[in-house]
Amino acid sequence: MSSARSLEEGLNRRQFLAAAAAVSAFALVPRHVLGAGETPPSEKLNIAGIGVGGMGANNLENLNSQNIVALCDVDHEYAAKTFKQYPKARIWTDYREMLEKQRDIDAVVIATPDHTHTVIALAAMQAGKPAGSNFECAGLLTEICLLGNVAKRVGDPIHWDGVNMKITNQPEANRYVRTEYRKGWTL
Q: What was the pLDDT predicted at 155?
């Protein structure tokens, strides 16, 4: 079969490549061609929101310039308004399933109850997705990163006493844990 086909049979190879190049060019438009303030499609992130019924809806509104591709909430009734705002986004109930099955996610925004932030953020990071969360989660994530580094240095699992800020099963590992804080503000 010849690589050049007649118009009755459909596109020939040259026509196909020209059409494909035209379509690709639209997706890769340089910023200066679109004008000031416009982001080309190739520079937008595909964002997934987890816990989108309350605070998560506000977080997503701040990301409207990006592509919202996935929404996850255990309470679909409470999150229904957010689901309607992003009709192109795929809807999930289980964040683990979403992270495993939806491959087009570039980053994750988490706005679940405080006690679940860390677990979800770690799952997202393990899936190779940067994870953003509200501020109250930062201390917990820092603590987990610190403990992971200490366990790696010591070479064994560690048992962390969060109340007393120390490792209980390997006291020698506590030398890697520094809990020095600056003096608080005064007036």
A: 73
Question: Once rounded to an integer, what is the mean pLDDT over residues 100-104?
Answer: 95
The CB density around residue 15, as the number of other CB atoms within 10 Å, is: 13
- Per DSSP, 28 falls in state T
Q: Report yes or no on 99 lying in a domain.
A: yes
Phi, psi of 153, rounded to the nearest 5 degrees: -65, -40
Say how many domains are in the chain. 3
Tell how strand 46-50 and strand 107-110 pair up: parallel
Segment 70-95 shows an average pLDDT of 96
- CA dist 154 and 68 (Å) reads 41
Same domain, 74 and 49: yes
102 and 90 in contact (C-beta within 8 Å)? yes
Rounded-to-integer distance, Cα 160 and Cα 145, Å: 13
Answer yes or no: do 35 and 50 share one domain: no
Ranges 24-38, 131-145, 168-182: which has the least confidence: 24-38
* Per-residue model confidence (pLDDT) at position 28: 45
**pLDDT value of residue 141:** 61
The helix or strand, by DSSP H or E, that contains position 109, with its residue range, turns out to be: strand 107-110
Domain coverage including residue 23: 9-42
